Amino acid sequence: MADYYTPAQLALKLGINEAQITELESKGFLHPKLKDGRRFFPSRQAYELQVARRIARKQRVSLERAFARVEEMRLWQERATVSHR
């Protein structure tokens, strides 16, 4: 997986259009890094979006709810990592 994706690369990778990427940004689900006036999405966000879309499809929940579940999983994983140190 690449370290960063442009909106076009991310849309292509996930099989969606750039307008959907922009919409997810406006809803606060994606947070691009800015460099020279261009937006780049870290690979972690690309992965989380991919997982959220899969959860939304399989569990028949909204993408918003799926993102919340991804966030819950990420926090659980971080806590588990810290407790094992």
Describe it for me?
With 85 residues, the chain is mostly helical. It has a 3-stranded antiparallel β-sheet with strand order 1-3-2. The longest helix is centred in the last third of the chain and has 21 residues. The chain is globular, with a radius of gyration of 14 Å.
Q: H/E order of the elements?
A: EHHEEHH
Average pLDDT number: 91
Spatial order of the strands forming the largest sheet: 1-3-2
Q: Count the DSSP helices.
A: 4
Topology:
Elements: E1 4-5, H1 7-14, H2 18-26, E2 33-35, E3 38-42, H3 43-59, H4 63-83
Antiparallel strand pairs: 1-3, 2-3
Helix pairs in contact: 1-2, 3-4
Quickly describe the structure.
This protein is mostly helical and 85 residues long. A 3-stranded antiparallel sheet has the order 1-3-2.
List key phrases describing it:
mainly alpha; 3 strands; 3-stranded antiparallel beta sheet; 85 residues
